[in-house]
Amino acid sequence: MLGGARGEWYDAGITTKEMQEIKIVKKEENRLVTRRNALIEARHRLSIQEQRLMLWVLSSIEPTDEGLKTYRVAISDLAAVAGITNKDIYTRLRKTTKKLMSRVIEIQEEERLLQRPLINQATYKTGEGYVDIRLDEDLKKYLIQLKENFTTIRLKYAFRLASTYALRIYEILVQYQRLGTRTITVKELRRMLDIEPKKHPRWDNFETFVLKVAEREINKQTDIFFTYKKRKKGKRIDSIEFKIKAQRTQEKDEAPSPALEGTEAAQLAAYGVSKRKAEKLAKSAPEAVQASIRALKTQKGEIANPAGWLVQFIEQGWTDSVRMNAERETKERREEGKRKALVAEHERKELAQARALSEKHRQQIERIVTGWSKTEENRYWKECKERIGNDLFSRGLIKKEGIKTWLSPMHRQAVREYLANAHGARFVTKEEHEAGLVAAA
Fold first, then answer.
1. Which of 140, 234, 292, 427 qualifies as a cystine partner to 313, CB 3.0-4.6 A?
2. Residues sharing a CB contact under 8 Å with residue 372, sequence separation 6 or more, in sequence order
3. Residue 342 and residue 300 in one domain
4. Rounded CA gap, 345 and 335, in Å?
5. Into how many domains does the chain fold?
6. Are residues 145 and 69 in the same domain?
7. For the chain, what is the total number of helices (H) and then of strands (E)?
8. At 221, phi and psi to the nearest 5?
9. Each residue of 27-46: pLDDT tens digit?
């Protein structure tokens, strides 16, 4: 690899073999992530941004793949997935991948405990708008060639969850969806979620800030619905029994809107509530049924699972504050859409400026090196060999292309460094370039 300034990543010496192992991560609907159960239950503490980024990359892996690849992701897609909406999108994303490389997960299998990072490399292509991510090789057995003890989740539901605890619990419960029940000790659940002993030490705090948040988000936004019961050992709450079932989902453009005429039970049934449950709720709380349907209509199709949402509204005694919250959330979504549009425009301008600056540097380099003597060329060639070491691809390219190679984006950074150090050459800075654009405007 032909060098580069500290803090920058670029693909100066990528080999043909590496190019063949790169898989483009495309932005598609209905993406799936399949992992061995031991990896799902691994102990880790990732932010919601980091979890989403990892799931997005993992969704490119097919369980039948023979090996892990380098996964190439568009930065704009990755930022949208991770929820990064501020202007400095590249800096934030670089910080996120840097943190991911320092995160260690603990995978427990019988008497064996494996501690590994999730990713070991993130390569950013300067001015190209994408990043190559390389996963840790020791995770291969948990991601490919899976025959048993694995679980698949749909990203469109996982990405609707805003809480890191909700997302983790969703993954843990989907494992047992077919069985319909799962009992986990409080100690084990805290281990999986990597909750420190000093955080939420009291049961009421743990229930309020972890379980209740997860229950509200998962039942409202995903394809499963769960309830739970506390199990005691003596006077202490020792474990949690989860009851899990699948629930029918409604996408935004498919949301039903039955008229308010007819019985309360019929209205609930029209939204997917079972006939038996609808009749029970209509008989015990008809006014609450009407209030729940009015509140649901204010959501304008944003609820993924209307049936589960209505049942929760009625059974937990939600009030019209839900309607106000729904209106506020709708407004926030609209504002979020505007922010994303601004970010996309800023990214487009930033990329155009980066390319223009790179072209200026190419012209400056060309003016300098075209007047070199043979001695000067040999001097630079010696410098190149010291930089690229045993990288046969880069050596062969430079030897074949000669001066053309020095002007290519692949080696432009290294040439600039050499000219600055050996010849005292000064190149236009990013700030000077942007100032020139402003003055020209």
1. 292
2. 380
3. no
4. 16
5. 4
6. yes
7. 20, 11
8. -115, -10
9. 555 678 888 888 888 888 88
**Which structural domain range is residue 403 located in?**
335-440
Q: Where are the beta strands (DSSP E) in 129-279?
A: 130-135, 150-154, 181-185, 224-233, 236-246
C-alpha–C-alpha distance, residues 265 and 133, integer Å:
52
Same domain flag for 239 and 278: no
The predicted model scores a pTM of 0.53
Residues 340 and 433 in one domain: yes
Predicted pLDDT at 228: 94
Distance CA 34, CA 28 (A): 16
Distant-in-sequence, close-in-space partners of 271: CB < 8 Å, separation ≥ 6: 256, 258, 293, 296, 306, 307, 310
Residue among 48, 122, 55, 118 at smallest CA distance from 83: 48
Q: Which of 102, 100, 106, 84 is nearest to 133 (CA)?
A: 100
Number of CB atoms found within 10 A of residue 337's CB: 10
pLDDT for 93-124, tens place per residue?
A: 788 888 888 888 889 887 788 898 888 888 88
Whether 72 and 178 share a structural domain: no
DSSP string of 271-318, one letter each residue: TT--HHHHHHHHHH-HHHHHHHHHHHHHTTT--S-HHHHHHHHHHTT-
**314 and 409 both lie in a single domain:** no
